[in-house]
Design a protein that fits this description.
globular; two-stranded antiparallel sheet; 2 domains; Transferase(Phosphotransferase), domain 1; seven-stranded mixed β-sheet; Phosphorylase Kinase, domain 1
Amino acid sequence: MNNMQNLATELEVPLFSTSDLEFDVNSTIKYGSCSVVRKAFIPALSWTVAVKNYKQQDSNSYKNEMRILKKLNHENLLNLKGLLSDGDSLVVDWCSGPNLYEYFNSKFEQCYSKASTNELMNIAYQISNGMEYMHSMKIIHRDLKSKNVFLIGPSLQKGTRQWKVKIGDFNLAVALNDPNAQNIQTKCEGSLYWMAPEVINKNFINQQISDPYTFKSDVYSFGVILFELVTGEVPFKDLEPMAMVLKIGRREISLNPQSSSHASQEIIDLIKQCTEHKREFRPEFAQIKNLLSKIIE
């Protein structure tokens, strides 16, 4: 308990015990590869929060996400609200809506089928806004994907449905000023559909590259999310995953969305730029954000 109190003091966040929380037994428990997320209410503070409990064997991910979260403070990123005294749980913002992947695949709420282009591009803008800030803090996400983009809402603004976006799941993120950054950057992790070619090459093709993860690998992942936003599906879904990975790693296939009601030529060009095989040709998030801000005006 003393160690946890010292840690909470160091991070300047409250330390809660389980008796401080009322867990919502009716909410869906969300299971990740290394954690379980539950909704809870803290009566003393009138806070509705998410409690992310890490599996005990994954303490490194817990510690990494905790320290990354403390470095960040932005409207489009999940915020660290406190720690739980059990030693392996984080208390963060609760997002009342689906994650973006669920949004595309939710038949019950018909989220995507009822979406306007402005709604979709506003989501893209908010993701770029959060990522621009994250990169300004010299932090690479390394696992940006639709499953790690969380939605709050929706609300009606000028007759259009809009969502508040929060990017989360920073357990694989790396701060470039971390003394261990170089070692972390060369360890390839993440999710296949959103993985940049240079990361695939290091991980699956054994190409010698000392820094597969850069800001530009996050940009590639964003390009895949933008593809999802205009099509409602992940790219190359007809390919077997490992065949897809090898083709991307060998630069044999590229994202090439067709023009549609949600995909103007401007957005198609942006997707192609973000997912360029050569990372030096991909834009920065400041450029992406600037373009999207003009589209949603």
